[in-house]
Amino acid sequence: MHSLIRLSCILLALSLAGCGSLQRKAAVPSQQMGQAQIAGLTGVRYMVASQASVDQMAMDIQAGFKVRDQKTLNSAANYLSLSGGGDDGAYGAGLLIGWSERGDRPQFNLVTGISTGALIAPFAFVGKEYDPVLRQVYTQLGPQDIFIERGLISGILSDGLSDTTPLFQLISKYVDQDFLNKVASEYTTKNRWLLIGTTNLDAGVPVVWNMGKIASIGTPEALELFRKVMLASASIPGAFSPVMFDFEVSGQSFHEMHVDGGAITQVFLYPSALSQRAKDLKLNLQKQRNAYIIRNARLDPEWRETERGTLSIIQRAIASLIQTQGLGDLYRIYHTTQLDGVSFNLAYIGPDFKFPHKTEFDTAYMQALFDYGYKQGLSGKEWQKYPPGYKRGFDEELPKK
Length: 401
Prior knowledge:
The chain is an alpha/beta fold. It has helices at about 1-15, 50-65, 70-75, 90-100, 115-125, 130-140, 150-155, 165-175, 175-190, 210-215, 220-235, 275-280, 310-340, 365-380; strands at about 45, 75-80, 110-115, 150, 160-165, 195-200, 205-210, 245-250, 250-260, 290-300, 345-350. Strands 1, 2, 3, 6, 7, 8, 9, 10 and 11 form a nine-stranded mixed beta sheet that branches. It has a two-stranded antiparallel sheet with strand order 4-5. A hairpin with a 2-residue loop joins strand 8 and strand 9. The longest helix is centred in the last third of the chain and has 31 residues, at about 310-340. The radius of gyration is 21 Å and the shape is globular. It starts with a helix and ends in a 22-residue tail after the last helix.
């Protein structure tokens, strides 16, 4: 993501000069955020920093339990989390397709996605029939298929240095009404969940969208929202324009500004507070639960001599922040899974992958990384049982379920 980070840094530096902002509706007042709904599409997202939203998520899960049978209860529950990472998403796409061809990729009960992971997640959720889509997107496309760079001055005076109309068109090409119906069917008949994370920039809080619930509404507005959520989750602030959502409170209309979910977290599984609420509701969960986390990034420190210049220093600092944030997210997920008796399985880009990364969404780089992930999936990669640097044996000190 180096070039996109660079664009954000340029915007950050030049914004000090000051310029007029674009017009928008007022943001949802903080005290009314819990009441805000999209007309005709109520109850489709959770502000997971709020206990009320976590409670609602638990009740929605409980409602879905009505379609479960004894066979489901006796089988393992499998969860998949796909992280952000820009064009490094080629790794996750390749791994999933190799896993499919190996023949033991499970049907996931829960799939979550952030940023580039949000672009992969819906297709991974529906199943192997969409593997060709992932292969096409992550091996054949280039920058022109994702964004259009605005001129420097135009970018500064706009809400992002690049226009993501091509990305929205790409999403719309594959996410059509037929695709929406398939997501809806999995949600309503099997209680399988697809969650995508964005960042509400006005409130500075993470938002998790219930994509299955959106799909089950089935209207043209639901299809448009589904696509916009995917776009919002991948909209890097400063580099790409944010996505504006229309919300209503007591008959008044407001805007919420949403950007890349990676502004808050690089990868997520489920809120840790959800476990206690599930206990309170006496939800009968499967005994065997497995979490598979695909981190579309390297986790080893990257040495690079930094030029002595403001933008270079800012760029390097942001890159380091993203990497350490991602590690922290893995530690948090690991701790939650160990408390809840869920097996932890992690895959990420190893230090053995060495291929020049000249530009963002460089097709040659993405093809090489896709092949790297594909070989791991096909060969039956040994998933890591701990986050990097985690002290082995620490989990033995945690309460056993």
